[in-house]
Write a structure and sequence with these properties.
The chain has about 325 residues and is α/β, with parallel strands linked by helices. It contains twelve helices and twelve strands. The longest helix is centred in the last third of the chain and has 18 residues, at about 295-310. The radius of gyration is 26 Å and the shape is elongated. The model has no long low-confidence stretch (mean pLDDT about 90).
């Protein structure tokens, strides 16, 4: 049963039947009742795909993220999906695996107008953003979250990264640490720079020198990250604190310390950005800076869908900064 056959059964035009099903004011209440009754009797189901093509919309939003084995992104997707579902939209997930070339390929694919809007967290390997500028030129309905591209004039949903970096480092200092290593995945993105600046400020305000040899950059390879951390701890045995600015580096730090026989927290203390649900069950329980990941996803999706539905531009002034929270556990105990 399609719209044409339904119209023939009712001896009405296809346009009239379509308007009746859409509750148009142009169709009388009596005709609407006839159309709906027969549609229900004959089990007519509207073709949502065809309707979307006519209106040049897909009712689909894309979500581009670096990884899914980071609990932050899993929670953010849950928030995005809830808002999208309530608004009648589908969600397509695209994974860059923190790889610049994959990110370029995905954005080129999306330039063809396959989604109505895009939520994006930039890959840590991204150093040039020409591909994002081209994407924005073709589809300005873009909202960045967590790892953002500052070059584009659109909304960003982030957390207070500078303050959180300061808080994590100050917490280690107050726990007695004097030689604190800082682990990050990218100094190119604002998220890495802001957390680094917070780390440096905490050292400075507590009378400690910043030592760039204690800054280690990791990547998406957990085994390689573990080896790098082990090398750092071997060459700098005085390190008594680790501030891991992403979840995977906190876990790699645990593995490195275990293999080297460095006891946490007795010999070295660890704090990390993490939304890991079992952080309190690790041995020892991990002290974390926990981001409001679910709310970040909800906020980003709300900004995007509101702009799509109202056909309005997304402005930088719509950006939102949410607050992260420190949960002190045994990994930083005195």
């Amino acid at each position: 049963m399609n719209l044409k056959r339904l119209a023939q059964e009712l001896n009405l035009s296809i346009a009239t039947v379509s308007r009746a099903l859409q509750d148009s004011y142009e169709v009388s209440a009596h005709t609407k009742e006839r159309v709906r009754a027969l549609a229900a009797e004959l089990n007519y189901q509207p073709n949502a795909y065809a309707s979307s093509l006519r209106r040049n919309v897909s009712k689909t939003i894309g979500v581009v993220i670096p990884e899914v084995n980071n609990h932050f992104f899993s929670l953010a997707i849950n928030g995005i999906e809830e808002v999208a579902r309530q608004s009648g939209y589908h969600v397509l997930i695209y994974l860059t695996h923190d790889d610049y070339e994959r990110e370029v390929g995905i954005t080129q694919y999306l330039t063809g107008g396959r989604v109505d809007g895009l939520l994006m967290s930039v890959a840590s390997e991204s150093r040039e953003f020409e591909h994002l500028q081209k994407l924005y030129a073709s589809k300005p309905a873009i909202v960045f979250f967590d790892r953002v591209c500052e070059a584009l004039p659109t909304a960003k949903v982030t957390t207070n990264d500078y303050e959180s970096g300061y808080l994590a480092t100050a917490h280690l200092i107050e726990a007695g640490c004097r030689h604190i290593a800082h682990l990050l995945v990218s100094g190119n993105l604002s998220i890495g720079r802001m957390r680094m600046q917070g780390y440096q400020a905490a050292l400075r305000e507590h009378g400690l020198e910043f030592d760039e040899t204690l800054v280690l950059t990791g990547d998406a390879d957990d085994e390689r990250n573990k080896e790098r951390i082990m090398d750092l701890l071997r060459t700098r045995p005085e390190v008594d604190g680790i501030f891991a600015s992403v979840e995977r580096l906190a876990l790699s730090s645990y593995q490195a310390c275990k293999e080297l026989g460095r006891a946490i927290p007795e010999q070295i203390k660890v704090v990390g950005f993490s939304n890991l649900g079992v952080a309190s069950l690790l041995d020892p329980a991990l002290t974390t800076i926990t981001q409001p990941a679910y709310d970040i996803g909800r906020q980003a999706a709300t900004i995007l869908l509101r702009a799509i539905e109202k056909k309005k531009a997304i402005l930088p002034s719509q950006s939102v900064v949410l607050k992260s929270e420190l949960f002190a556990r045994r990994s930083t105990a005195r």
